[in-house]
Amino acid sequence: MKKFSLNLARGAALASVFMVGGCALEVENTKAAEELAQRAQPPGSVYTGWRVFQDRCAGCHGAPATGSVAAPDLLPIVRNMGPRRFVGLVLMRYDWSLPAGQSGADSAARDALIEGVMQRKQGTLTMPAWQGEPRVNAHIMDLYAYLSARADGSQGPGRPAP
Q1: Do 49 and 145 form a contact (C-beta atoms < 8 A)?
Q2: Hey, CA dihedral for 42, 76, 90, 104, is it positive or negative?
Q3: Of 21, 72, 82, 115, whose CA is between 20 and 30 Å from 42?
């Protein structure tokens, strides 16, 4: 009887080791999934980007970034834009109105647009180039994180959680 009890105790201990091991594996898998989800997010703080947007951009693009009479709705534009293009457009500004394939820094279309504006043959460029503005420069990836979250629907028009 003593041997049976000892074998039963060993069996229960072995079963609990497998159960605990399975639980630990599940937690590790959850952490890996969370890490992958985090890596898929644009770098930067949505909250800080919202603050910069409200301070520097909302006056023209509207508080929810959906446009106004003075400036376009940014959500459909940013939805199909990567971070590199976003940074270049916001900091340099002058090629927003060009098609995606013609927006390179050395493109002839960009040069023609700038020349047309300088000669007053084309409309004015009302959005400033933000490359000299320290707050926008320092938080450009935060601004992208906020606008990307708005564009993909993961952030509503209100204030994000800090």
Answers
A1: yes
A2: positive
A3: 72
Euclidean distance between the first and the last CA atom of the chain, given in angstroms as a whole number? 63
The residue with tokens 């940074």 is 87
pTM of the full predicted structure? Answer: 0.59
Q: Give the whole-angstrom CA distance, residue 130 versus residue 19.
A: 57
Contacts of 42 (CB under 8 A, 6+ apart): 83, 141, 144, 145, 148, 149
Contact 74/67 with Cβ under 8 angstroms?
A: yes
Lowest mean pLDDT among 4-8, 48-52, 90-94, 158-162: 4-8
For the chain, the C-alpha Rg in angstroms (whole number) is 26
Q: What is the pLDDT of residues 5-49, one digit of tens each?
A: 556 556 665 556 555 555 554 555 667 766 666 666 657 899 999
